[in-house]
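TASK: fixed-backbone design
INPUT:
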């Protein structure tokens, strides 16, 4: 007997058993297909969620970028204001350096004159043609009448203030 004949004889002798085997095969095939369908469905659900999730993530990233851009523009404005203040302070520092140099020269000049016991009068305006020397001698004699016996030398510094 060939194999086919054995199968037909077997089916004829035991129809319930054969039906059970076929039912089991069908159920097995159904469950396999069902598992496959469920797996595909779960995969598609995951794919949809993955698609939705990056969109949410992209939205969050875009929102974060917008917030960062706003903060950067605020920082740029503040930086520009600080740079302007720094430039103004640089100019002011340069001016103060020049004034400090002038004051130091004047201080050194005053210290040198102080050692010589000289009198120094600042702020006396002289007119052109007037003799400042005679004016100062007369003013000193009027202010200090008891000091008649002194050598006077009047030195006029033009340009110092």
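OUTPUT:
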């Amino acid at each position: 007997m060939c194999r086919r004949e054995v199968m037909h004889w077997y089916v004829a002798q035991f129809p319930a058993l054969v039906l059970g085997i076929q039912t089991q095969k069908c159920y097995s095939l159904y469950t396999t297909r069902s598992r496959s369908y469920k797996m595909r469905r779960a995969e598609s659900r995951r794919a949809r969620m993955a698609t939705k999730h990056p969109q949410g993530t992209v939205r969050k990233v875009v929102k974060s970028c917008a917030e960062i851009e706003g903060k950067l523009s605020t920082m740029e404005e503040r930086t520009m204001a600080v740079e302007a203040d720094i430039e103004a302070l640089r100019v002011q520092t340069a001016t103060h350096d020049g004034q400090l140099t002038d004051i130091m020269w004047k201080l050194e000049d005053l210290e040198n004159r102080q050692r010589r016991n000289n009198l120094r009068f600042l702020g006396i305006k002289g007119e052109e043609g007037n003799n400042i020397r005679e004016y100062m001698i007369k003013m000193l004699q009027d202010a200090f009448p008891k000091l008649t016996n002194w050598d006077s030398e009047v030195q006029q510094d033009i340009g110092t203030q």
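COMMENT: The helical segments are 3-13, 15-115, 132-143.
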